[in-house]
Write a structure and sequence with these properties.
By secondary structure, this protein is mainly beta. It is 0% helix and 52% strand. The chain has no helices and 11 strands. Strand 4 and strand 5 form a beta hairpin.
Length: 113
């Protein structure tokens, strides 16, 4: 059974940092792209960042470029999201996604002003 478990969310002041981690289990995901999405209250889920299966190619939403960094470790089946210089508008539930079908349960990130 495939399972994705996110961790690392929390409450932080504007300008602070958090590191999210997603651990995948149930199969090997080294051939899949991995990514992070987020959903703020009253808004649709949106793309944040993605990394290719090898880790060599990354992509970011314009709103997080230069502040967030995505990385993966295929030996551990994990994908991380380092978030720096956080802003109140980054407040959302953050979801890990592997391939097109597998989603985590989400982790709350709250940035206070």
């Amino acid at each position: 059974q495939v399972q994705l478990v996110e961790s690392g969310g929390g409450l932080v002041q504007a300008g602070g940092s958090l590191r999210l981690s997603c651990a995948a289990s149930g199969r090997t995901f080294s051939s899949y792209a991995m990514g992070w999405f987020r959903q703020a209250p009253g808004k649709e889920r949106e793309f944040v960042a993605a990394v290719s299966n090898s880790g060599g190619i990354t992509d970011y939403a314009d709103s997080v470029k230069g502040r967030f960094t995505i990385s993966r470790d295929n030996s551990k089946n994990t994908v991380d999201l380092q978030m720096n210089n956080l802003k109140p508008e980054d407040t959302a539930v953050y979801y890990c996604r592997v391939g097109d079908s597998y989603w985590g349960q989400g982790t709350q990130v709250t940035v206070s002003s």
